[in-house]
């Protein structure tokens, strides 16, 4: 009996190149109107297309206002403890969009960044909680709810974490300084002109109201030449300011200008001041702010998208925006937000209401604030996003009010 013959498959001839190939400029036009995931797939298709996609002119085009890829994204990394060993037990996203409220930013955050963070950051966020963030990096601290007896191996106290790439740099606690203030840790990134991927500082600011003396203790952790990261020696610097009513507003994070110059808002009875510290020279200084009659939380120190120092003051429903120039402070805008607050919450009368600033992030041009009733018990009100460029306001519905989350770019 003859063995069965193998059936030959009929193969179709490959089409000619001119029948299916698309011009490179047409492929770029298609990619420019797609989402960030399509950019990655297109760049991996061939060398020619990857070269065109990585061209600076094409990147500027797709990241401009209204482009497929947002030039920046301001999101919340929620400070919720992930429980269980399987990520299927916690399906709530760890990241939610804050600004800008565009289709491209929403697509990138909800369709790419949030699912990736939930898959790759599940284990580390189960063991660590966020402290501060800057430039896309987050400083994490080991959760106190996890006892050391339940740890399979010793867990470092601190971690500098990149939620986009999943990279982690672990650090022990500062060996010399004990952080006791509300925001002792300050993170600087390579975009600040420090010449290394990041610097982590722990700072203690000491104020003497009777004499006006100020002393700042600093200990820095940085990457060494062999790739390791360790804490350096502690240093201190002293300065003298107006002694009357001396108070450091450490509720808000300090502002960092290019080159590593740190700015704290210093509240005195004789006008507000800014306490400065240069990490290169290790020297303290101070500068005057524009005169205001606002309370502490109605003042906010920030940084403009072009890298200048910015000061916000809210008197009733008028938000004044001051910018620092070479010849001093210049008032650049006065935003009346009363009508917008009426439209956001028609049931609330704006009489006897106060604006309290929460935080501000450079590059984004967004300011987060809350509105409270004067002389009443403060309940957690919804967060409101104020865009300083368009002067528009909206309620941030994706942020829960039960705990303070951590911000990152």
Structure description:
- By secondary structure, the protein is of the alpha+beta class.
- Helix content is 16%, strand content 36%.
- The strands form six sheets. Strands 7, 8, 9, 10 and 11 form a five-stranded antiparallel β-sheet that branches. Strands 12, 13, 14, 15 and 16 form a five-stranded antiparallel β-sheet that branches. A four-stranded antiparallel β-sheet has the order 3-4-5-6.
- The termini are far apart.
- The model is unreliable at 84-90 and 401-405 (pLDDT under 50).
Low-confidence stretches: 84-90, 401-405
Strand content: 35-45%
Shape: globular
Biggest sheet: strands, sense, closure? 5 strands, antiparallel
In helices, the fraction of residues equals: 10-25%
Structural class: alpha+beta
Q: What would you report as the Rg, rounded to the nearest angstrom?
A: 26 Å
Mean pLDDT: 77
Number of helices: 8
Number of DSSP E strands: 25
Query: Between the first and last Cα atoms, what is the distance in angstroms?
Result: 74 Å
How are the SSEs ordered, and which strands pair?
Layout: H1 17-20, H2 24-32, H3 36-43, H4 47-53, H5 56-63, E1 74-77, E2 95-99, H6 103-120, H7 122-127, E3 128-134, E4 137-142, E5 158-161, E6 168-171, E7 185-189, E8 198-208, E9 213-223, E10 229-231, E11 235-240, E12 247-248, E13 255-257, E14 261-267, E15 273-278, E16 283-288, E17 299-303, E18 309-315, E19 318-325, E20 328-336, H8 338-344, E21 353-361, E22 366-373, E23 384-387, E24 392-395, E25 406-408
Antiparallel strand pairs: 1-2, 1-25, 3-4, 4-5, 5-6, 7-8, 8-9, 9-10, 9-11, 12-14, 13-14, 14-15, 15-16, 17-18, 18-19, 19-20, 21-22, 22-23, 23-24
